[in-house]
């Protein structure tokens, strides 16, 4: 059952205003999409990763529930924040495991025309996160495009909707961000 964007947006606003029943109604409406996003993240994680997709969704949702200061604009804003939060959870987990040390189990990340991690089973999420953070300092919108498309699995049109820009702007940002990240990762490697 596909729920409307308006219904989700309405429930998000009600939840922000303190309506606890709105949260109860919201969870089943957004869970499948959050699970899909988490799956996109997890497919790029190490084979030895102990965190499961469902656990990532649950951890992200717990953090979202605790983040009372967020004023949800709409459904796409919710999914954009969720994608960012899932990325943060995975990077924090990787850092806590000691993968931050230089040269510790580092695998090369290659970017192809679709900006997918190579078929290597062990991509270095921390290096990619560091490069993405550097891109965000230089151009935050391009970094957000990468985050939404690469990690969140959003299409060009969905990304344009979240960022409130045209699809051609997303296409340009996507192409330039891929080139910038490729160079950044190459220089850091």
Name a few traits of the molecule.
mainly alpha, 0% strand, globular, 189 residues, single chain, 8 helices
Explain the overall architecture:
The chain is an all-alpha fold. The chain has one domain (5-188). Helix content is 67%, strand content 0%. The chain has 8 helices and no strands. The protein has helices at residues 5-16, 20-42, 53-66, 75-96, 125-138, 140-151, 156-163, 167-188. α7 packs across α8 (167-188). The longest helix is centred in the N-terminal third of the chain and has 23 residues, at 20-42. It is globular. 29% of the residues are buried. Mean pLDDT is 78; it is low at 106-123.
Task: Briefly characterize the structure.
By secondary structure, the protein is an all-alpha fold.
Our count of helices gives 8
Detail the poorly predicted runs: 106-123
Largest sheet, in brief, is: none
Beta-strand content bin: under 5%
Span from first to last CA?
46 Å
Mean pLDDT: 78
Specify the helix fraction band.
Answer: 55-70%
How does the overall form come out from the CA principal axes? globular
Radius of gyration (CA) equals: 17 Å
N-to-C order of helices and strands: HHHHHHHH
Structural class: mainly alpha
Tally of domains: 1
Give a count of the beta strands, DSSP E runs of length 2 or more: 0
């Amino acid at each position: 059952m596909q729920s409307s964007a308006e219904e989700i947006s309405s429930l998000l606003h009600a939840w922000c205003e303190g309506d606890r029943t709105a949260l109860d109604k919201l969870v089943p409406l957004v869970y499948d999409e959050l699970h899909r996003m988490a799956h996109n993240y997890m497919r790029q994680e190490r084979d030895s990763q102990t965190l499961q997709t469902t656990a990532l969704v649950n951890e992200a949702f717990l953090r979202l529930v605790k983040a009372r200061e967020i004023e949800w604009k709409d459904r796409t804003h919710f999914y954009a924040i969720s994608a960012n939060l899932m990325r943060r959870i995975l990077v924090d987990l990787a850092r806590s495991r000691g993968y931050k040390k230089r040269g510790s189990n580092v695998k090369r990340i290659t970017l192809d025309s679709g900006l997918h991690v190579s078929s290597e089973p062990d991509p270095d999420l921390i290096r990619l996160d560091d490069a993405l953070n550097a891109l965000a300092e230089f151009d935050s919108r391009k970094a957000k495009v990468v985050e939404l498309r690469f990690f969140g699995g959003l299409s060009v049109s969905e990304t344009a909707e979240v960022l409130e820009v045209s699809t051609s702007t997303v296409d340009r940002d996507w192409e330039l961000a891929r080139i910038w990240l490729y160079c950044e990762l190459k220089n850091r490697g």
